[in-house]
Amino acid sequence: MIKINLVREGRAVRGTGAAPTIAAAAAGGPSNLNSVLVASGLILGILGGLGWWFWETRILAEKQATASVKTNEARRLEAIIKEVEDYQKRKDNLQKRIDLINQLEQGQKGPVRIMDQIIKDLPDLVWLDRLNMSGGVITIEGRGLNPNAIANFVENIKSDPFFEEPDLSSVSGVAATSTTAVYTFSMSFKFTYLPKGEAGAAGAATTTGTTGTSGTAAATSGTGAK
Length: 226
Fold this sequence. Notes:
The chain is an alpha+beta fold. The chain has a domain at about 120-200: 2-Layer Sandwich (Alpha-Beta Plaits), CATH 3.30.70. Helix content is about 70%, strand content about 15%. The chain has helices at about 5-25, 30-120, 145-160, 195-225; strands at about 125-135, 135-145, 165-175, 180-190. The protein has a 4-stranded antiparallel β-sheet.
């Protein structure tokens, strides 16, 4: 009687059929590996590109933020500069007004001071008809009831420290009424802001200082010569 072991035969058949399948898988292995490497490379490239994009985006945002800050700072500085310029203009205008006021005051001091001094020197029985000042020279035209009053006025002007030697150009008598005569006169003199005594003292001090300096220089030269 012949016996057949079907279990072994089945195992043998299954083993025989599995061998080609494993070989095929082994044969297709490098291709699948290349595909995996290509896919990995693509993924890495995409990730690298995304990282670079995010990095550039961040740098751009930082630059834009810095530019915005600098723009705001420039606008703030422009506003400050404009305020400073406006303040300087107002200051200049105010200084011009102050200078003009000072000039007017200086211009008014001279005539007022002259009139004050002349009124102080004006004696009784004498009055003025006209006063003119040109180039520092004062010309007066007036009248007096007698020559002595006019002479007193001339003497007062002569003694005044702010006036120089007066020049009485003319004195003439005009009959005003049947009993009283009126004398007209014309006189000119110069006015100085520095009194005569102070002007002389200043000149003497200057002369003394110059002489002292020259003497010192001469003494120094004599010592050197020795």
